[in-house]
Amino acid sequence: MYCEAFDIREKPFSLAADPRYLYMSQQHWEAMAHLMYGVQDDWGFVLITGEIGTGKTTLCRLLLDQMPSDVEVAFLINPRLTVQELLASVCDEFRIEHPPAAAGTRELFDLISAHLLAIHSRAHKALLIIDEAQCLSPDVIDQLRLLTNLETADCKLLRIILLGQPELRDKLAQPELEQMSQRITARYHLGPLSKKDVASYVSHRMTLAGAREQFFSRPALRALFRLSRGVPRLINVICDRALLGACMKKEKVVTRATLLQAGHEVLRETRFTSRSASVSRLRWIGAGVAAGMLGALVLLANYDLPAPKSFPVTGSTLPGEATVQAASRGPSDASLWTGEPGPEHGRDAAYKGLLAKKGLSYDSAGPVTENAFCSDMEVFNLHCRDRQETGRDLRTPPVPSVLTLSDTYGRGIFVTLQALRGEKALFRIGDVDREIDISDLRARWTGQYLTLEKIGAPEAAQRKSFPSGAGRRKG
Asked: Are residues 53 and 185 in the same domain?
């Protein structure tokens, strides 16, 4: 639809693994060098890994297009196979006639061995490429090791290239697969594109599609890098949607706002969820639980409970009394700053608390860095404002915001500042709400905070200050 509007021959950001559109970054050149090494080396066993969508399959297609005529290739794209199915698939790819599925693994193995000897006698090479190799079972991987045992005095009869996601490295690192791992002669991990490469990638594909000018503004390209994190597949999806959006708006170039909207449409369903509906349901559930507890208390009030047992007094308190009192108050302020740091002291919980105040939830596969979090916020048309306040009279950060505090041992603690009530500050640490004196907060605050603002919104001209009577941290 947008091809005519931008005067290009075809869609430049198709998800097809088309080698014509492969952008050869420095990483891709190095990965290709490893692949060619696996083809040419007489003892080659090459492992290429990379995150989803970094271009492993497209790189492999390019290799196949440039394959020397003296190399006979078997290419497997569905590795979810049993040992017998693997051997049968290898036979099919090498065009080896074999009995029906009832044939045993030994018979199939002997057929492959004979065919590899025949290839070698013609002064040709045999190459097996397996894509999505992270799906291989340990039994199948061990069978591949047995295939690499087929050799002559001066070379292997079968060269193998495995392409897969990062978990393939973890799988090969297992003790039971150590023999296989030791036979890998070359390894390379393909990472995402850099910021500079993302701009060149977009220009490369647009030019190949017939564009005679640049249709992505520089701010849009910067936002594209943050949203896609340099993953080519995400770049393709976002750019395709952005070109369509620009066409619908009758824009001559893709603006930053249009690209952010495209990223929002593409990414939000898979990575973010709205809390508006769930919050409403939770409120009703909470009301029901509260009503049930109130009813239970009323019933208990009508019963004559037995008198508590007496204990001999050995000190100023009865056994268990201190424990009960401490539990009713919760952790003391002192223990909060001197205990062992735990998950509740991390950024993740504080970031989630910050978004919760805006009615959003944030899901992550693992620990989140500040850069990753702020990049994700672009989807919601939000940007991070990260400041370090200096000086004796610290100004109050915006509410809500993530504060960086310091415990007694100088370790960082991240909390979500939720409200300021007179001389009190309400904040959340982990999943617990705490209220302390503002002077205590100020004493622990490093001066650093992070908050979220709508993109394009002017910064507030004035902010409240900590009350002048707030004390400083004592040395």
From this structure: yes
